[in-house]
Every structure is written in C-alpha cells, then in structure tokens.
Sequence to fold (230 residues):
Amino acid sequence: MSVASTQPLPEGRPPRQVQEHLWLFAPNRDCMGGSAWWLETADGGGVLVDCPGLTQANLSFLSERPAGQIVLTSREGHGRLRRLQSSLGWPVFVQEQEAYLLPGLAVETYGAEQHLAPGLRLRWTPGPTPGSAVLLADAQTDQPAVLFCGRLLSPVAPGQALPLRTRRSFHWGRWIQSLQDLQAWIPADPALQLASGAGLGALRGEALIASFQEQLTRLDLAALRDQPAP
Fold:
C-alpha cells in the first residue's frame, strides 16, 4: 500500500444540490478544476459523472448512497479514481479508447454507444480526447433531461457553452464531427439542460445551462472547424 493511500483525507465540503436529483461537486484540482456530478436515478441508485476531489466530505456523501456507477467522460476526469473506486466498490464505465489509462482497475468498456439503464445513454464523442463521451439522462419528475458533456463543451459566458480547443486537444476535426453527430443524436427537447465537466466559473454562480438544445443546433460548425490551432 502506498503512503499516499494511507494519509488522512482533507475534510473538504460536500457537493451542493442544484436540483431535486442532481448535485455538483466543488472543482477538482486533480482534474484541472473540472466539475463532477452526482445524478440520483429513478431506481434509487445513481451515477457519478467523473471524479470529484478525494475529500472526506465527498467520500462520506457518496458512501451514503445506496448504489452507484461511475462514468468517465474523458481522461481529463479521472482524478484519483483508483482510491475512490476502491472505497466505494462501484463499477466504472470508460470508453474503450481510454481503458488502457486505468491498468489493473476493473472497468466496463463500450464502443460507440452504451445503455447504462433505462433513461441513461452513453455516446462516444472523440475530439477533446480519444475516448471522450457524453451521458444523456432522460427527464425525471420535476427535472428536465440533462446532457453531461464532459469537456466537449465548456461554459464561456452565462447560459453559453462552446467547444474550446487547447494544446492538449486530441483532434479538432473529429471534435467538430462529434458535435455534428450529437446534433442529430439528441432527441427533440427544448428543456434539455447542459452539465459541463469543465470549469464553471463563466456561468457566474449557475451550475447548468438551461434550454440548451437550440443553442446546440445553432452552432456554426463550419466556422468552428476553420478556427486556427492555439
């Protein structure tokens, strides 16, 4: 056992509830300030989308859940997954292109698409990284459908998100193609909300981007494709 795995965890603060079935964790510095989410599902379980900071508050919150699954939207969301998964014992779903990054960890892999449970669908959206993916959660009582997009789309202003190309980005052309495919894949739902896995500071205190489907369909992909590399 490593020294790091025996050290006490920082206390931290628990995730904040943003809707009846949805919680947002504090930015995770192990994921470059990325955002992880907990979605409570209709069957009484839930889904942890990406890895939150490894703190006592977060681990206590998750340990109190009756059951769960962990979904990774890209290699940028792994954080300290190994220790978290060993504490919770939950299955981990990762797109097959990035399973090699988790040697020795039992993971469930998928290709183009995976149905996790009724109302929960994963789709491969390469571009930000080779194994980037999104998770679509159907609407629940008093809660619209939510698209957990990882780093595919990042907040740039209140109520707005765009693909943000960086020096770490895998392939810009495939990224734009993934967005085009996503436009066709997302069901017609004007109330669809976006939950990004990037930093959310540009949202000025908000957690979600509401009514996102129209914004997604209006993306000028041709103009985005022609953007120069950073």
User: Anything to note?
Assistant: Residues 176 and 223 are 10 Å apart (CA to CA).
